[in-house]
Amino acid sequence: MNLLKINxxxxxxxxxxxxxKDDNVSVDDxxxxxxxxxxxxxxxxxxxIAKGEEIIKYGFAIAxxxxxxxxxxxxxxxxxxxxxxxxxxxxxxxxxxxLPEVAPHTFKGFRRxxxxxxxxxxxxxxxxxxCVNSIAGKLVNDNQxxxxxxxxxxxxxxxxxxxxxxxxxLDTTAxxxxxxxxxxxxxxxLVLALGCENLTLAMFQEKLGKWNDERVKFLVCQNEAxxxxxxxxxxxxxxxxAGRFEREDIDASELVIGMKCGGSDGLSGITANPAxxxxxxxxxxxxxTTILTEVPEMFGAEKALFDRCKDEKTFNEACDMVNxxxxxxxxxxxxxxxNPSPGNKAxxxxxxxxxxxxxxxxxxxxxxSGVYRYAEKVxxxxxxxxxxxxxxxxxxxxxxxxxxHMVLFTTGRxxxxxxxxxxxxxxxxSALYEKKNGWIDFNAGTIAEGKETVDEAGAxxxxxxxxxxxxxxxxxxxxGFREISILxxxxxx
Length: 493
Prior knowledge:
Structural class: alpha/beta
Oligomer: single chain
Largest sheet: 7 strands, parallel
């Protein structure tokens, strides 16, 4: 099998392996001779496509032809162009699909005193301001002896913000950082301040709301003659608290999983993303929670996604989320379709519609139960949308701050980074899995090779997620990779 036609109405197919000029290829009842070399993940015309005619993939238009395209030709940026514009009108045509039947699952997690579940029992050091990043990093290096028993790690998360910010930017920084402080995977947290920053400790604590004094402690470095000695004492107290928690059986319905893609290729929407979608449907069927973000990579795929909103109110909230993000682009003088990236294009993605229709496959077929603002805590069971950009580290941080225990990250090109929450890398193709085995945790390239169906891969992914939730380390965790990034929109003072 060297070609895949995704939808009966498509006029292009995707190459599952490299095709050479004059190769004879076929899909369904269509036989073709390739008129040129076509790389894996790229598209071939299944019939003649006239200039101006829509190019159909996933059953939707992903572009219009900029010239006449002969059957057997390579279809990409040289002969196709986006149909997107800044304007969009949406109508609600509710669709509902049955969820799969899934046997009950449990994982070995931590039960917090407030009743929430966790999959890690870390101690986190959260800098209120970038000025204390180096102090936080030194504290992590100097106090690794506290990582013992049930404590799974001691980490800090550097960022450049918390001062020289105003208005929405300062509020956004506070929202993300307090979301991390409140994250259940952090068994205990040291909030590290400098003392003269815009994001004052009083402001931070007000945004945080109620907290457990045993679990969350604060240190203002300018107030201490020796901040390292003072922090050591606090970290010992925090380790004593976090060390009380032990793993126990917890129902899978309590898992919250974020879903993200990056470094996508032409197989992303065929292998890894649909496999994540099947996983999402299974977790939702078990009563669990999944979160989909990357709003700019919903542009052009709104119809396929938003018709599954549980009701018209949720649909309107989803439309507002997309339109607000388009306004954000326009306010900065940018067109909404300035995407995909060079790496995406090299992997076979032609337009943003092409990328978006593949991206939203991660949402499976479940009903959309909630729509949330950037870094807002997700509280609705089922499949949820959260506003945020497509940038990998910003998005993964956003998902963590929203409460995701784990992030599933699909990629066709490969990337080593990780969010504060364990980040599972899922390859779209086996070549990447074999080449970057130190980065990739799960291979969905087996789907393109015909070794398993998308449904089988989704079921296998659920079992892997349960293993990670129970303590199996991701490759990024083994490598010690964890980082954050925060959305910024305004001026720097």
